Structure to design on (944 residues):
């Protein structure tokens, strides 16, 4: 088990800089997600940790060990590949036993080596010792695949293949578990249950895990902490709730959850409130603005919709007038697109049966509490 | 892309070894032949590096470099006619093969002609038979006492229907035994050309034949040209047919070069002929390459195209009849060889005067050694090419080593005779005196047939995703261990397919065997060749049958293996 520390790492491919000065400090036992759109450098970061790429500069520590000169096969990072990368010519058991065989191979005399090579090439050519057999069966039981030990991997379902890949990485008792978009090849339902499985196993074993994904829901629901990356930079690191309630850039506000982003300028500071003006609206926020020009972030679920004729105290909350452009009924919630000035705001309201849905073209009043207006 | 910095040392060593191998046994011989073609005297480049006296004498010779020998050669009318004849031969064979193949390919690709499967299967015969056996089979059929000649005379013909010992004879043999090389690419070309365009033509009121001439054929044209150029190179480089059939007065480049070396030890002349051969073959190979390239990217898409097969009975029946006639000739040729192998004497009458198994007895008592040699040499070449090809495809596919890719395709353009001469010239003196050893023979076979092997292994290498290998490394294996335990087993189907091809072509190989094989290592092909030259036709026939059966058996095993693989 170990922590992972990345210091000032950059990586260039020719003229293209894939990673700019990456710094990460991943604690022992932590479930850490690298989140970002495709091409943001998250996979490259992971491949540098695994040793498949060499950073152009900077250093990586696994545990206390600086790993620059440690080749990929000696880093003891279990990796689950996006495509699973199961060995197609081996059955489930042999796949999982592979790393144990290699360990034996490195610790044996030349004659024993031959027999290990034998069983790596074909089961008939060499017998497994009991300790390997037991260990493999134990982990297969753990991922509920002990019944399928002698199946070829191509005969398994996607979820089962995923679990083989996981078992194969776990059996070597890696210092770090690396997962590269492990759920992207599964269908929606399976993805949800695999999320729970992975999270449970990770908690159970307390293994340091780096999880690469482009799916913010995945990262937010599984990880202890998330690093959001964009164009080779780390934009923000934090817990899921932290990222959601305190996005530090509009990019994160938009990438982590849905946001309404408005451009505004600070008009005044009064009674601990920041007053902002923009095209067709005026808003007050209990948050402080750093600059005069601000990005105002409002989450769709923090807005309430009231009829145009309702009376609301403007000192208690922000009131904005708008017109419903579209309403979409999504079951438990109703999503409105509301025109406010030159902006179209997205508003999610919980729907209780029998309640009125505002029709398109209807004038409405939107209210947002002062503390819900985030400023960047 | 630089990947794993450490742990590649083992592989790097292997890469260097492969470069040394090609450099020493392919580039150096070709280069020194090039030098010799100017100096006119044998040059020992390797010796020059190790021995100062040789170095000085080599320098002396290099000072004497001039175009003198080229001038002399090209004023020598014999060489010039040889070049002209060789080009003419290749050109004639090219044209006739294409004309013969177009209806055949169209029939296979586009119609429901009867006996299609049988015809396709019979088209394989020419590919398994070494050309000098086919040439010899034509002597049995069309020679002065051949059975075809006898039938022809009985029907009132005068003399021979076709004199096998002539340009016409060589052309006919090559046409009937090289046509499959063009056939399958042509079938492919007819299959990929877009059928909807033909339908459009018919829809616009064009007649069927009009559509074929002005739409179908032009669409298949790139494929046609590419196969034509391939046939040109194959015919130009072929040694087996001319050496058996070409009469004294018919000069051909390959025969001339062989005689210069084995008869007169005229190094300068042989070297110049070698250089000329390589240049011509390389040029046509390059042209062919250009056409194939365009074709591959142009018309093959993943979208399956609906193929409507012609059902017109008259068309189908006449195509089928025509195709059967074409494939019947090689079949009859082989049957003639088989019949001769069990004949006591044959030649006076239409059929042999008696039948005996004595020729086989003789072979299995006196020539068992040749069979063993063939198998051992082929096995040696096989092992060597499996190892080299596996690593070469690894380097080409995983490390984008374009240089190695290029290097392993050079043997494709070097005619066997040319390569043999280059090797003899380079390795017949110290420090590396290998001429006349089984080792050089095996190396020569290996290099010559390596392109087939590499093509095959490269295909399966490409199919193995990089991350499977990375997974093995991630699990603790060194790159070399990963290559042995993961990549190797996954490449097995490709290796198996390539192996059979290498084995079969090595057993068939004539030019290299004739030039390089020492008596104690004479393979079957050389033994048959010598028997034919000594006019010991009956044992040559029996040995040929053994060779063909061996090749057939191997091919059968290979087919069985690949079918099993597919079922898995």
């Amino acid at each position: 088990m170990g922590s992972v520390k990345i210091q000032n790492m950059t990586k260039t491919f020719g003229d293209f800089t894939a990673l700019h000065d990456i710094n990460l400090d991943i604690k022992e036992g932590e479930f850490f997600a690298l989140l970002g759109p495709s091409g943001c450098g998250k996979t490259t970061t992971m491949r540098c940790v695994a040793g498949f790429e060499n950073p152009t500069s900077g250093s990586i520590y696994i545990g206390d060990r600086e790993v620059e000169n440690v080749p990929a096969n000696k880093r003891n990072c279990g990796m689950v590949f996006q495509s699973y990368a199961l060995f197609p010519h081996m059955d489930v058991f042999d796949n999982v036993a592979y790393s144990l065989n290699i360990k034996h191979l490195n610790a044996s005399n030349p004659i024993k080596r031959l027999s290990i090579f034998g069983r790596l090439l074909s089961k008939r050519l060499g017998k497994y010792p009991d300790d390997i057999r037991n260990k493999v069966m134990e982990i297969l039981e753990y991922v509920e695949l002990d019944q399928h030990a002698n199946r070829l991997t191509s005969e398994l379902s996607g979820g089962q293949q995923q679990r083989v890949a996981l078992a194969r990485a776990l059996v070597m008792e890696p210092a770090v578990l690396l997962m590269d978009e492990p759920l992207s090849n599964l269908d929606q339902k399976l993805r949800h249950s695999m999320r729970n499985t992975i999270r449970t196993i990770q908690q159970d074993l307390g293994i340091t895990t780096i999880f690469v994904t482009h799916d913010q829901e995945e990262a937010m629901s599984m990880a202890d902490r998330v690093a959001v990356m964009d164009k080779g930079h780390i934009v923000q690191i934090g817990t899921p709730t932290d990222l959601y309630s305190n996005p530090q850039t509009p990019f994160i506000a938009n990438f982590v959850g849905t946001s309404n982003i408005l451009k505004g300028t600070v008009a005044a500071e009064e009674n601990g409130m920041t007053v902002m003006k923009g095209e067709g609206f005026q808003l007050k926020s209990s948050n402080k603005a750093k600059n005069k020009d601000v990005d105002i972030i409002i989450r769709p679920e923090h807005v309430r919709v009231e009829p145009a004729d309702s009376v609301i105290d403007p000192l208690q909350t922000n009131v904005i007038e708008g017109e419903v452009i579209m309403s979409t009924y999504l079951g438990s919630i109703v999503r409105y697109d509301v025109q406010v000035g030159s902006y179209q705001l997205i508003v999610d309201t919980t729907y209780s049966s029998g309640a009125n849905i505002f029709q398109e073209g209807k004038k409405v009043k939107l209210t947002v509490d002062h503390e819900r207006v985030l400023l960047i | 892309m630089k990947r794993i910095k450490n742990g590649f040392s083992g592989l790097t060593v292997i890469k260097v070894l492969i470069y040394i191998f090609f450099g020493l046994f392919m580039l150096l011989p070709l280069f020194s032949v090039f030098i010799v073609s100017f100096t006119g005297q044998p040059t020992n480049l390797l010796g020059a590096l190790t021995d100062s006296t040789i170095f000085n004498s080599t320098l002396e010779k290099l000072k004497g470099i001039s175009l003198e020998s080229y001038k002399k050669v090209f004023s020598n009318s014999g060489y010039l006619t040889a070049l002209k004849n060789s080009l003419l031969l290749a050109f004639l064979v090219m044209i006739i093969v294409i004309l013969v193949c177009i209806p055949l390919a169209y029939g296979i690709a586009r119609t429901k002609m009867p006996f299609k499967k049988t015809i396709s299967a019979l088209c394989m015969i020419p590919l398994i038979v070494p050309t000098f056996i086919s040439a010899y089979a034509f002597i049995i059929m069309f020679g002065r006492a051949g059975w075809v000649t006898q039938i022809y005379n009985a029907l009132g013909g005068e003399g021979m229907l076709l004199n096998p010992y002539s340009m016409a004879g060589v052309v006919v043999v090559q046409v009937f035994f090289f046509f499959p090389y063009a056939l399958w690419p042509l079938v492919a070309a007819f299959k990929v050309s877009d059928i909807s365009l033909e339908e459009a033509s018919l829809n616009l009121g064009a007649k069927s034949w009009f559509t074929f001439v002005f739409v179908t054929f032009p669409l298949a044209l790139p494929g046609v040209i590419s196969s034509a150029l391939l046939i040109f190179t194959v015919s130009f480089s072929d040694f087996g047919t001319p050496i058996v059939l070409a009469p004294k007065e018919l000069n051909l480049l390959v025969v001339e070069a062989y005689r210069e070396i084995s008869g007169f030890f005229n190094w300068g002349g042989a070297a110049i002929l070698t250089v000329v051969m390589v240049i011509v073959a390389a040029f046509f190979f390059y042209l062919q390459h250009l056409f194939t390239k365009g074709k591959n990217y142009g018309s093959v898409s993943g979208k399956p195209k609906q193929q409507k097969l012609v059902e017109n009975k008259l068309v189908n029946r006449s195509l089928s009849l025509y195709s059967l006639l074409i494939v019947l000739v090689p079949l009859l040729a082989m049957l003639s060889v088989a019949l001769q192998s069990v004949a006591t004497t044959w030649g006076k009458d239409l059929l042999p005067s008696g039948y005996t198994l004595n020729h086989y007895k003789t072979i299995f008592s006196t020539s068992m050694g040749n069979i063993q040699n063939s198998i051992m040499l082929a096995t040696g070449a096989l092992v060597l090419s499996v190892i080299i090809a596996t690593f070469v495809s690894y380097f080409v596919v995983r490390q984008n080593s374009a240089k190695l890719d290029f290097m392993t395709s050079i043997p494709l353009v070097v005619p066997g005779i040319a390569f043999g001469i280059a090797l003899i010239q380079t390795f017949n003196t110290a420090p590396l005196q290998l001429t006349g050893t089984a080792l050089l023979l095996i190396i020569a076979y290996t290099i010559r047939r390596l392109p087939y092997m590499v093509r095959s292994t490269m295909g399966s290498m490409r199919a193995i995703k990089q991350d499977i290998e990375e997974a093995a490394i991630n699990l603790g294996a060194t790159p070399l261990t990963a290559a042995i335990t993961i990549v190797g087993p996954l490449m097995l189907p490709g290796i198996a397919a390539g192996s059979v091809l290498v084995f079969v072509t090595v057993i068939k190989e004539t030019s290299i065997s004739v030039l390089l094989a020492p008596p104690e290592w004479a393979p079957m092909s050389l033994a048959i060749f010598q028997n034919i030259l000594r006019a010991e036709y009956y044992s040559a026939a029996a040995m040929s049958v053994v060779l063909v059966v061996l090749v057939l058996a191997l091919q059968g095993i290979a087919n069985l293996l690949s079918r099993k693989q597919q079922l898995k």
Observations:
- Confidence is low (pLDDT under 50) at residues 1-7, 295-305 of chain B.
